[in-house]
Automatic annotation (TrEMBL):
Pfam families: NAD_binding_10 (PF13460). The keyword Oxidoreductase applies. Coiled coil: none annotated. Residues 21-129 form the NAD(P)-binding domain. GO terms for molecular function: oxidoreductase activity, acting on the CH-OH group of donors, NAD or NADP as acceptor. The keyword Cell membrane does not apply. Keywords: Oxidoreductase. SUPFAM superfamilies: NAD(P)-binding Rossmann-fold domains. This is NAD(P)-binding domain-containing protein. InterPro entries: NAD(P)-bd_dom, NAD(P)-bd_dom_sf, NAD(P)_dehydrat-like.
Amino acid sequence: MAPAAIARHTAKTVCVMDSSSRLGAALVDRLLHRGYTVHAAAFARGDATKAAWSENKRVRVFRADPLDYNSIAEAIRGCSGLFYTFDDESSYDEFMVETELRAAHNVLEACAQADTIERVVFTSSVTALIWNEKLKVTEDVDERDWSDPNFCRKFKLWHALAKTLSEKTAWALAMDRGVDMVAVNAGLILAGPELSSANPYLKGAPEMYEDGVLVTVKLKFLVDAHICVFENPDAYGRYLCFNHTICHPKDAINLAQMLSPGPSPPPSDGLGVIQGRIHSKKLNKLLLEYRDGLQVAE
């Protein structure tokens, strides 16, 4: 995509919510480098005022509560776009599922009521696609797939259930209210103190590996993907976002060492080489066409 297409966006004001998450903070930083004015809306559990960019003149810091519609509406007021991520990785249970679902409803309703919002980039997860009976079938996974809520409840896959129901809620509202929304379904993010074996994304990791759908993504790649789908007018629907599939025993061992550092590597007994069954062709094509433009103003 030609740089001229990007120039239409760089003078605009956008909101990043939750800006205190690792992805949110990285998005604020990159957007500022690209010339945007940013409303950095931090949820109650974070403190955006401690970020390096908090004193930037093109940043307005907001305290937002995902369950408080008015605080969301205030944060997005005057913005042409919203980057929304709900990134609580401390724990997931049935209560968190309901919280994330309600938050998604509030955010999309606020965007529908805002006159200035042109596009919403909704961060979801690969876990919203992979958990269903198809996992044991030979078919590959792509953006058309959804995790089965009943399957998730049966095996207490609360992270997957939260991401599935919140994204479906967002899509239902977006389509009903005419909100231009794009979803980025991210793999396990390889960044931040939350990267540990206790990360709720990893519930069922052995099964993910066996079925060729255990994927990871570097933070910079994920940020690029978000900016690309926001700025490219041709972006639509859902985009699987990852840049590595864990398919080989040595890859699984390397990931295990990253999650639980120790003096000796964990055993790889019983692990075989797996054929990857998940693809991000849709995003890769978009990035290939747009990558040169992402370097503008950086």
